[in-house]
Amino acid sequence: MAERRVVVTGIGLLTPLGWGVQSHLDALRRGAVGLRAMDEWTRLGLRCRFGGAIDLAAARADTAIAPRRLETMGTLAAQAVLAGEAAIADSGVDPGLLRHESTALILGAGVGSMPAIYEGARLVFAGKARRVRPFSILQGMSSAPSAHVAQAFGIGGRSYTLASACASSAHAIGHAFELIRSGTAARALAGGSEELNVIVAASFEALRTALSSEQDEATRACLPFDARRSGLVLAGGAGLLMLEERRDALERGARVYGEIVGFAANSQADDLVLPEASGEAAARCMRAALASAGVGPSAVRYVNAHGTGTVAGDLAEARALAEVFGLGDDPAGDRDEAATGPWIGSTKGLTGHALGAAGGIETSFCLLMLRHGFLAGMPGFERSEDEMPELRWLRRTRECETDAGVHLSNSFGFGGTNACLVLAGP
After folding, report:
1. How many domains does the chain have?
2. What pLDDT digit, counting tens, does each position of 350-395 carry?
3. Number of C-alpha atoms within 13 angstroms, CB side, residue 276?
């Protein structure tokens, strides 16, 4: 049987840039930065000053789910449920089909709900074990995002949460893509959620080279690939997508954002935190994703790089990109049309790094750009350092044809886990 084609018909987004598809379209076109000063972190003694907080209240005001039910879920799962509700409504999928065994739910989360675990532990070690809330385990369990989404919408097929650090939701989408392409599932709700909290921030700060040291301006806090970058900025949020077999979607007249045409994953076992300096494993993953899509490097119009703003990570990824696509010829940035290779950008300078949710969020961004004919730039980028390969950096937002090539979305995580998705226009 021929492999099935997989399209995306619904998107649900909750990020530091806003709530819903339209707010993100507007923010991406403007190059808006959603980061802000985290005063609580400063009071608690953290040196990292900025984060990508979300406005959960705005999403809660726009839902049919009872407020009390959302509260019992905890933030991590509530974000997933709200984004899932939006993606389902956006897709127009008959809610009755969600209960069918052909509907899958594959989500990703990098860390889980640390506050729920901490609050329970605090009571236990204070000798107050009988005061631990009954919802602590239901909020803190690793599978909380998929468990609560499945219960909220009656998902009848396979349902689970993948955990692979910063590649979690990219792996989830890739896995869902493979399930539909093989005929195992007819449709899938896929993506991820991540909760922003001070415990995770403090743990990242203990790594010393991970978090941004910027103290003054939110717009300079996260500068992917720029010579001035000093680290990543943590963020919360959720990005969920409704994936369907293309023929089914077209037969019911669905609006299509774009098509997932390729996926690959691999790992490099050199270090738990640092990527291999050459970027070799990342390059292999990109090549495998393109091979999965049946296209070569010349077909790629834009790469939404993992690009978190760390010194070592961005340099390694740039080397991998140069290995796959070759060097650009536009070091001054003023001969855009004459430059070669795909545009290279990272939207984490706008949103911060939502860890396990990043792949779902950034895949959604790529699909919005493909459908609406633009590429979101990196407004804080000025220049890369001398030792970084010169690529075709996307400094500003650009208009483009909706059918101009494919997009590649990279997600690389702690433990050396990599995932790459290839996306085409509707």
Report:
1. 1
2. 999 999 999 999 999 999 999 999 999 999 999 999 999 999 999 9
3. 15
